[in-house]
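How a chain folds remains the central question behind the approach discussed here. This step matters because it turns folding into a mapping between discrete strings. The sequence in question and its structure tokens are set out directly beneath this paragraph.
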Amino acid sequence: MNAPVTAVLRRVNRGLLGLAGLLLVLAGGAVLAAGLDLSVPTWWPWAGPGDVLLSTADRQRWREESWWWPTVIAALGVIVLLALWWLLAQFRRGRLAEILVDTGDGDAAVLRGRALAEVLEADAAAQEGVVQAKVALTGRRTAPRTRVALLLEPYASPGAALGVLSGEALARARASAGLDALPTEARLRAVRHRARRVT
């Protein structure tokens, strides 16, 4: 996902969150004002503490219609699914689809983000003591960032693994993509193993 699309989605997300918050504050204020028996305007939906959100007539108006309950259930189901999708979208970080590479002649070439990530993964996983490497590219097309997760053997040295990652794999990636810098967040984890019994 490129930077302009990500920026638009971020603005839409903030707008929707702001609108949802405003609606909740207004609805809560209306109910609170009626519950506290405050002086409210005539157009206010609830007049006092004894008022109900929905009258009996409102609740039973469409009850006998055959389409009513399936429509209500379908609408609520769609709202729940949209809310879950939106919630999960908050935790998902956008991955960078492509990187602009300066070719030196005033033009720019496009490098696929997935291709660079795969090369970095293979490079990082090839070193001694690394079982698996996962790389994700984030940031902007002109200023990419990487998140690297290394799964290490129990005997592997985290310091040595980070040294090789920084001095070799990331250095080669920077050079091949023509980048001045490639900020990286690395997470290291050791393979779980059973303790050996000593006799």
